[in-house]
Amino acid sequence: MHGDIAPGQALTLRGIGKEFGVSMTPAREAVRRLAAEGALTLSSSGRVSTPELGNDRIEELAALRALLEVELASRALPRAHMALIDRLQSINMTVAEMVTKRDAVGYIRANLEFHRTLYLRAQAPAMLAIAETVWLQLGPTMRALYGRLRRTEPPHYHKLIIAALKAGDEPGLRLAVRSDVTQGLRLLVS
Amino acid sequence: MHGDIAPGQALTLRGIGKEFGVSMTPAREAVRRLAAEGALTLSSSGRVSTPELGNDRIEELAALRALLEVELASRALPRAHMALIDRLQSINMTVAEMVTKRDAVGYIRANLEFHRTLYLRAQAPAMLAIAETVWLQLGPTMRALYGRLRRTEPPHYHKLIIAALKAGDEPGLRLAVRSDVTQGLRLLVS
DNA sequence: GGCTGATATTTGTGATCACATGGGCGTATG
DNA sequence: CATACGCCCATGTGATCACAAATATCAGCC
Fold first, then answer.
1. Mind spelling out the 3-state secondary structure of A101-150?
2. pLDDT tens, residue by residue, B52-88
C-alpha cells in the first residue's frame, strides 16, 4: 500500500516466510488474502508478484477512488469537528515534510493517513475497507509515480479539503476530494 | 453469494475439506480469501461463519451497491446494443420464473446474473469485482430476506432498466438501477 | 556466436501431524 | 431449578514433507 515494493516485483512463499520467521503456511495465507484483494497478482502457475497496472486499469482505479472517497468525505462532513481538522492539519505538515525530504514512501503513507483520518469519521467501515483495497492495488504504482516526478510543493487540494470542512461546504468538499484523488493519478497515465 | 448458506452459519475447515474431497489446506486458503473479501467472518479464535449483518451495515452495503452499480450501468449504456438487451430480457424471464417458483436461491442467482450481464459491458473489471464482493457480503442476508417476504411479481425496476437502455436515457437508467438496488434492501432493514 | 535441447534447481500445492486453545456439555452445588 | 465449574472433544495454527510443474542454467550443435 505504501509503495515499498516496486510494480512487477516477484515474491516467493519461502522468501516471505524466511523474511518474517515463519514457515510457508502463514506466508501462503497472507499471499492468498492479498491476492484476493488485488494487492498481489498470481500468475497461471501460481507465481506471486506485485501487479503492473496498465493505463486503463489506473484510470479505473482512480475513478473508483473518486467515487468512494467523495462519498466518504461527504459522510464525514457533518461529524467533522475542530479536533479532527486540527489533526488533519498536523498530518498535512508531515506530508509537506515528506515532500521536501523526497521520501516517496513516507509521502504516500502520510497522504493516505490524511485521507483515512477524515474517512474514519464517516462511520462507514465497509466503504472505508473497500477504499483501502483500492489503495492497496495502487500502492506499487503510486510509488513509481511519485518517484519519477520531483515535486516540491505540498498537495494544494489538501488545503481546499480543510477549508471546505471548516466552512461546512459540502459541494466544495466533494470537488476538492475528487480533484485531490484524480490529480496525482492523472499524471501517471503515460 | 447466492444465499445457499444462512447468516451466522458456522463452518469448519475439516467439514469444508471433506465436502469438497480435499484436505484442510485448500479449505483454509479458500476461507481466508473469502474472509478477506468480507464474505465470511473469522471470530477472534479463528472460527469461521457467515456474517450476520446489522441494520447499519446493510444500509452501508446498499449505499455501496447504489454507488458502484449506477456507475457501472452508466458506463455500460453507450456499449449496450440490441443483443445485450435481448439477453437481459431473457434473463429477466428466468427471474420471473424463479419468483413464481418461490425459489429464493434461484431468484438471487438470476437477479445477479441480470446485473452482471449489464455491467460486463462497462469494461471496468476492477469496479465489477468490487461490486461482486459486495454481493458476496450480502448473499446470506439477501436469502434471509427473500425467504421471508413472499412476493409474486417479478421486479418492476428491471423493466425500467431495459426501457432506459433502449431509449439511451442515462439519467433514467441511473435512477432505475439505484431504485432496483435500494428497493429490496430497504425492506430488509427491520 | 546464437539457438536449441536437456538437466537441475526453484517454487507452489496438497496432505498430514503435533499442539494449543476455545467451546460445548454434563455434573454438582447453592 | 438455575447457575457455575470442570472436563473432553472439536477446531484452528503452524511446520514439514513429497510431489509436480515451471523456470533457469548450461552444454552442445548448427
1. CCCHHHHHHHHHHHHHHHHHCCCCHHHHHHHHHHHHHHHHHHHHHHHHCC
2. 998 999 999 999 999 999 999 999 999 999 999 999 9
From B131, which residue of chain A is nearest by alpha-carbon distance? Answer: A130
Nearest by CB to A60, from B35, B57, B126: name it. Answer: B126
pLDDT digits (tens, 9 = 90+) for B151-184: 667 788 999 999 999 999 999 999 999 999 998 7
Contact criterion met (CB < 8 Å) for A63 and B127 = yes
Inter-chain touch B125–A60, beta carbons under 8 Å: yes
Cα(A84)–Cα(A158) distance, integer angstroms: 14
The residue length of chain A stands at 190
pTM of the model: 0.90
Instruction: Name the residue type at position B48.
Output: V
Return the closest-CA partner of residue B39 out of B117, B134, B176: B134
Do the beta carbons of residue B36 and residue A37 sit within 8 Å? yes
Distance from residue A33's CA to nucleotide C23's C1', rounded to whole Å: 27
How far apart, in Å, are the Cα atoms of B146 and each of A25, A176, B3, B111? 40, 41, 10, 12
Query: Is it the case that residue A189 has pLDDT exceeding 70?
Result: no
Q: A170 vs chain B: nearest CA distance in angstroms? A: 18
Rounded distance, CA B71 to CA B77, Å? 10
In what helix (H) or strand (E) does residue A8 lie, and over which residues does it extend?
none
Query: Closest nt to A46 (CA→C1')?
Result: C12
CA dist A2 and A146 (Å) reads: 11
Residue with cell 496498465: A54
Q: Does residue B4 have a pLDDT over 70?
A: yes
In the numeric block, which cell numbers belong to residue A93? 505538515
How many whole angstroms separate alpha carbon A91 and alpha carbon A94?
A: 5
